[in-house]
Specification:
The complex is a heterodimer of chains A (322) and B (332).
Chain A: H1 2-29, H2 34-38, H3 45-54, H4 61-74, H5 87-122, H6 127-141, H7 144-158, H8 177-215, H9 218-225, H10 230-237, H11 239-267, H12 273-282, H13 286-314, H14 316-321
Helix pairs in contact in A: 1-13, 5-6, 5-8, 5-11, 6-8, 7-8, 7-11, 8-11, 11-12, 11-13, 12-13
Chain B: H1 3-27, E1 46-53, E2 58-61, E3 64-66, E4 70-73, E5 80-83, E6 87-95, H2 106-141, H3 144-159, H4 162-173, H5 177-186, H6 190-204, H7 207-214, H8 219-255, H9 267-276, H10 282-315, H11 323-331
Antiparallel strand pairs in B: 1-2, 1-6, 3-4, 4-5
The chains are: A mainly alpha (322), B mainly alpha (332).
């Protein structure tokens, strides 16, 4: 088990390095150099030189790369042009809202996805299964931003049940702890459900196939032939192998959640990483774009790592071969 | 749903949308111009009367009232009163989907936007198809070093959330439609490359390819006569699914304001514009979204049908394409 963890970690590190390198290369290969972003008409040449020096833009290409990589390793992500703050400050401010949103969405993806899949598999090709299949296909085809807009229209504008955007009410500072938490929950509900539902539709499609696979495997038939009661088959024999796809799903839904939250955060003005990414992209704030991209990729790599390791916990075959 | 029926239904959906978007704008009654002050935000189904004056000015409103010597266009303070002698002609047409806040016909916008969206997604899928197939084939046939390098690149690119890659590229390149095609294509070929590599690796050991190798067939001939025909099913199915993803990706980028410039609004940009006027002009965001959904779901149905169809052919392998021609060529 320890060897497995170490080996997977050893594979993840060069991958992260490659990801960082690719990000740097893409940003620097793009037309309009790093310097143009700082450059402004009417800037005195001396000031221009100072800025170039300050951001290390006068260094040769490979030194800039090493400098950026070194900073990345130390957690020094540079200074944002747009926010005029260290990138690390911008990121640490935006990270908690994103984590909150993603964690609640993940709960919905797993809970709703699993519930739908189990309901569908109980009687394959029955009407419940068909309705769920059609619904999940329908939701899969809907763009997240459109679904979010529709939810805002119905639940906020027409019914007035939930606030349409932002994370807190304007007067949240003057609220007590309990009503503040309630206020946050009300603001969280719409974005989390929008992000979670689309994910859950994909999850249900995937889990349904996986569960059907487990159900028709030979050891289940063997257990049935030995006269094991159906409930015990479901709860003991089928459950553990059926957990494997859930674990895979955990790893798979991470990139979706990270990307999806970009859209949902924009629609709902949720002050997280997604909004930072879109804002910095619109303003060509390169240090922030690079930092957020690398962090997003790192989240995906780590998510896959965690799901690999969980796989080993759930599946003894993987554990022993590792 | 049987495979054939699913395929037919999906293709019908895709086909009618493509037809509507390409032919539709040309067969619609041409509108003389738009009138932002009087014809904005009209709900679906409104009949709009457009008054064209002799000097070319366009006045439009659902409420046009004709008096003995004057015509009154619009209601209340927005109304314009013009003399009959100055009126050139009056055109009347129904706005089936209403109008946006600039008084433009939403049906026309959706059809024209759809054409741009479809073209971008189609060419993007083509770029991804080309790169994915080439990289997959190269990795599978190019030896260990090439394989290792290409697959590590694929691993690293797959580690990025796709939307991040697209936003990164879109932010740096500020794309017009043609660059957007490149952005979409360059960020979505990795899955296909893996798929093709796997298939080619298993094809490689099949007898007819061993025979081709023994016969000394050159690589481009092997690619053209053996690999590509045998990959065609996989490629078709993957492309159908990819097209749907790219339609959504393009819409998402345009929604975020990182796609095509607003002068050529695509479906995503239309939804974004609709969100600005949300409670009042609900149809402006609902309709283009439904168009996206219809297209993506049709494409998913086609992809699913091809996939189940593909599985059947895998179970009973077809006779490999053109074994004989090669052996004959080698012998001659």
């Amino acid at each position: 088990m320890v060897r497995l963890v170490l080996r997977r970690l050893a594979l993840a590190v060069p991958l992260l390095l490659l990801v960082a390198t690719l990000t740097f290369l893409v940003v620097h290969a793009a037309p309009g150099s790093y310097a143009d972003a700082v450059d402004q008409p009417g800037l005195p040449p001396a000031a221009r030189e100072m800025i170039r020096e300050r951001f290390g833009l006068d260094l040769p290409f490979h030194l800039q790369y090493l400098r950026w990589l070194g900073g990345l390793a130390r957690g020094d992500l540079g200074v944002s042009y747009l926010y005029r703050q260290p990138v690390a400050t911008v990121v640490t401010r935006a990270l908690p809202p994103t984590l909150l949103l993603n964690a609640s969405s993940l709960l919905i993806v797993l809970g709703l996805g699993l519930a739908l899949a189990v309901a569908a598999v109980r009687r394959p090709h029955g009407w419940v299964d068909r309705v769920i299949t059609v619904l999940s296909l329908g939701v899969y085809g809907l763009p997240t931003f459109w679904l979010a807009g529709l939810a805002v229209l119905l639940l906020s504008h027409l019914l007035g049940w939930l606030p349409p955007s932002h994370m807190h009410s304007v007067d949240a500072d003057r609220m007590g702890a309990v009503s503040r938490a309630w206020d946050l929950l009300r603001h969280l509900l719409l974005p989390a459900v929008c992000l979670g539902t689309v994910g859950a539709a994909a999850a249900a499609r995937y889990l349904r196939a996986a569960l059907l696979d487990v159900r028709s495997s030979r050891f289940i038939s063997a257990a049935r032939a030995r006269g094991v009661p159906e409930r015990r088959i479901l709860q003991v024999h089928a459950l553990r192998p059926a957990l494997l796809p859930v674990v895979t799903l955990l790893g798979l839904s991470l990139p979706y959640l990270v990307s999806g939250s970009v859209v949902v955060e924009t629609v709902f003005s949720w002050p997280g990483m997604g909004q930072v990414l879109v804002e910095s992209a619109s303003a060509r704030d390169l240090p922030v774009i690079m930092a957020v991209t690398v962090l997003g990729a790192a989240a995906v790599v780590l998510g896959n790592l965690v799901s690999d390791l969980l796989y080993a916990v759930v599946d003894p075959r993987v554990r022993r071969s590792g | 749903m049987s495979t054939g029926r699913g395929l037919a239904a999906g293709l019908f959906g895709v086909g009618s949308l493509v037809l509507a978007c390409t032919v539709g704008p040309f067969v619609m009654t041409p509108v003389p111009g738009f009138d932002p002050s009087r014809a904005a935000l009209l709900p679906p189904g409104t009949v709009l009367r457009t008054v064209v004056l002799t000097d070319g000015t366009v006045l439009a409103s659902p409420a046009v009232e004709a008096g003995p010597s004057h015509i009154r266009v619009g209601l209340g303070p927005q109304a314009a009163v013009v003399e009959r002698t100055r009126v050139d002609r009056v055109v009347e047409h129904r706005l089936w989907l209403g109008s946006d806040r600039f008084g433009r016909d939403l049906l026309r916008l959706v059809l024209e936007g759809g054409r741009v969206s479809l073209l971008i997604a189609a060419f993007g899928a083509l770029v991804a198809l080309g790169i994915g197939t080439t990289v997959g084939l190269l990795a599978a046939t190019g030896g260990r070093l090439v394989d290792g390098a290409l697959m590590r690149l694929v691993d690293a690119l797959l580690a990025f959330p796709v939307l991040f890659l697209m936003i990164l590229a879109a932010a740096l390149l500020r794309p017009g439609p043609s660059l957007l095609v490149l952005v979409l294509g360059l960020t979505s070929w990795m899955g296909l490359a893996r798929l093709v590599r796997g298939q080619v690796l298993s094809l490689k050991e099949r007898p007819f390819l061993l025979a081709a190798r023994v016969a000394g067939t050159r690589w481009h001939r092997t690619w053209r006569l053996h690999y590509l025909p045998n990959l065609s099913g996989t490629l078709a199915q993957d492309t159908a699914l990819r097209l749907g993803d790219l339609v959504i990706a393009e819409a998402t980028l345009s929604y975020l304001g990182l796609g095509v410039p607003p002068s050529a609004p695509t479906w995503g940009a239309l939804v974004a514009e609709g969100h600005v006027v949300l409670p009042a002009g609900w149809w402006l965001s609902v309709v283009p979204g439904l168009a996206i959904a219809a297209l993506v779901i049709s494409l998913a149905v086609v992809g699913d049908a091809l996939q189940t169809g593909g599985r059947k052919t895998c179970a009973a392998p077809r006779v490999p394409v053109d074994v004989r021609r090669d052996t004959e060529a080698a012998a001659g």
